Hints:
Family (chain B): Belongs to the binding-protein-dependent transport system permease family.
Number of helices of chain A: 17
Largest interface: A-B, 51 and 53 residues
Helix content of chain B: over 70%
Subcellular location (chain B): Cell membrane
Membrane topology (chain B): Multi-pass membrane protein
Number of helices of chain B: 15
Radius of gyration of chain B: 25 Å
Keywords (chain B): Cell membrane, Membrane, Transmembrane, Transmembrane helix, Transport
Order of helices and strands of chain B: HHHHHHHHHHHHHHH
Oligomer: heterodimer
Distance between the termini of chain A: 15 Å
Shape of chain A: globular
Largest sheet of chain B: none
Distance between the termini of chain B: 46 Å
Protein name (chain B): ABC transporter permease
Radius of gyration of chain A: 23 Å
Strand content of chain B: under 5%
Number of strands of chain B: 0
Amino acid sequence: MTNPFRLSRRHLVAPAAVLAAATALAGCSSSSGTEATVSASSTPAAAQDVVFAIKEDPTCLDPQQTSMTTSLNIGRQLTDSLLDQDPATGDIVPWLASDWSVNDDATAYTFTLRDGVTFSDGTPLTSEVVAENFDAIMALGSSASLASAYLAGYTGTDVTSETEFTVNFSAPNVQFAQGATTMSLGILSADTVAASAEDRCQSVVGTGPFVLDSYTVNDSVKIVKRDGYDWGSELRGHTGEAYLDSVTFPIITEASVRTGGLESGEYDLIQDVPYIDESRFSGDAFHLYAAANPGVPNSFVINTTHGLMGDEAVRQAITKSLDRDQINVLTGSASGQAPTSVLTSSTPGYTDLGDTLAYDPEGAAALLEADGWTLGSDGIYQKDGQTLTFTVTAFYAQDVLEAAQMQLADNGIDMQINMVSAGDFFGAIASGDYDALGAGLTRTDPDVLRVLLSVDSASRWGIVDDPELESLLQEQAATVDTDARQAIVDQIQQLVAEKAYVIPALETVQLHASSANVEGLTFDSAARINLYDAMVVG
Amino acid sequence: MRSAGRLHRAGPLVRFVAPKVLQCLFVVWATYTVTFLLIHALPGDPVLAALAVRAGDAATTDPAVLDALRAQYGLDGSLVHQYVAHFVALFRGDLGVSMATGYEVSDMVARALPRTAAVAVLALVLGFVGALGFTIAAYLARPRWLRSAVSQIPPLGIAIPAFLTGVVLISLLSFQLGWFPASGADGFASTVMPAVTLSLPTGAIFYQVFSAAVFEAGDAGFVRTAQAKGLSQPVVIGRHILRNAVLPSITIIGLQIGYLAGGTAVVETVFSRDGIGRITVDAVLARDINVVTGVVMVVAAIYAVTTLVVDLLYGVLDPRIRTRVAATRAPRPVVLEGADPA
């Protein structure tokens, strides 16, 4: 089997290719890209126990409360969701709900539960439990910020029978269908949702293919196979129980210890391979797993009411002065690609705007000169005694900012970097005191642009006064028809990219690695890990 | 006035102990005050920092939610109110709740402290024994060039960063030889490599103090007297030299604990161990002020109590002080160190 990660980068990052790569990794000869099965030629090893080194303490294991990737990667194995989403096509398919429908204005979703599903404590999955889950998320409020955002406008769940119920919203909520595929809205047992927020962080009971065995804070997490599991979605590569008997997640904070441990065989899988170590694991002895975070790429998110950022020509000059391919080469993963829209290429609804976002220094210069800017003696544009400068506030990925800073300086634009702590980053958002924020926002639905930019978003990052954009953002959130919604989402991406309200810099890639004898690790549509099809081969 | 009389009778002991206890309490209070001022002088909002840890990019900046969280974690009200309220709570043993993780700080400390203590104590023992060995070896080494060569080895321990030592030990002893686990805090085996890593700088400091004292004692008149009496080399070293050199080493144990509190942060990160150091690093990064205050106070208390115990030990170990304390009405003649203890 050739290593799929020696294929060209361009092929790898498209979601279809990620899945196809996973398929190829699993040794499957099928090229359909929808099955990630372990091949017939692979023989399962006698021991199906793996050690998966993770990079940080998950802090809270409850997938409804946490937004931390490390924690969600574990939570995904313990919980199932009502629906599942094909990362290749964005199609939403049944999972715990065998059937579902939505009314015309997306204010009521009716589900029918699959028969015979039980939680690992033996209790059955019923409409009542699902209703309790959603009610509990609303009660958690800010402790479950991501899950409650998916339930925006939730007014209650009508239980019509043991297996049928309707989830109601006060306003159209199109992104709920996608939200229902995430582990943030994963369904937990009645006892779990009745427990306190703190207790739920330590122990959760779900219907998933694995069961939590132990969690020792700052040390390790262990999960074991759920006996009798037989309700994976159609997107999974096999049916029945998971292949792995147990997965132990030691918490290894030091990246060099994780990579060294994978090389020496201490760990079978490791989370977050530093991009710089990628080539060490590209040989036949290892598998690399890469998936671009869906949502908004790592970008400059603009506050048009601050500094020079209200000047459209300036913003457009900045976006034209960025050579995104070079930024990707300098700071990205070898498996990644430069962003070509204000949504990443792995986000459902993504539209290729490579032309709008092309590197065009001449165009940038022409725009600025038409706007009255002239190059000063220090190589930076000036107008009326004012220097063309702006500041990006960020709390991670300083290397990306530095690469952009260098390119902008070459094109006469001075960019200042303001690296702050995570708390101060959100402090800046709260006070509105920034020219631009340097960050990405991970979500699996194009609605992420509304969350980022709309005036009605509780914690918007971009501050934009554009009635046309605002009405489009609201319209997509209320359009149930997929094609009609896609047309609006296309318009939004074009508008946001063209007016440079969001200036993309890099598609961040989740990069994990395993030894060659572990196969079948797959990503869900949010680039989180699914271990159900994973297997140790002999 | 009976109590005053009792106090007078207990005079020398009280006069010896009381100032030291007061000093110990002062250190704890001063640490609290400085920590409180530093934390509140830092810019930024700890509630937002904690939210950023828990909610990632979905963190809310809704002022109503932030105010509610501020009240929940005792961060509302004036600074004076918070200063007093937290200090009173500390004396009740209530260290508050971690904003980033939701755990009780006292639980976190109780969980982590024994693990850190295991590493620190083993590192102290290894460092002390190593320093002792090198000191004796250097003292006995002949000729002079060999002695200086031996003397140059221990300072390497402080010159090599603990981070580097740790990573080298992991790749050699864990990944290559498989003798010790690379991570975790499970059992004695997991304690060895972190303790060895920390014992190098600790031992180097012990060695500096210890060897200086030994060489000084070695030149003292009472050692020449002992040698002249025909006592064997081990007896001279054991009874006369080491006994006199041990006092300054004990003095720096307090300082070493201060160093170990910082050093464990490095080894606990490299060896992925749960412990005080790692909790502190995480808490500082997350602006988790209840945890930072709690950990600093616990470490300060340990440091202050250790210093107190060391000071009191002087009274037992140093005959000059012992007799001064033991003397009640009529001070007896002081027995000077160096008078033949044999």
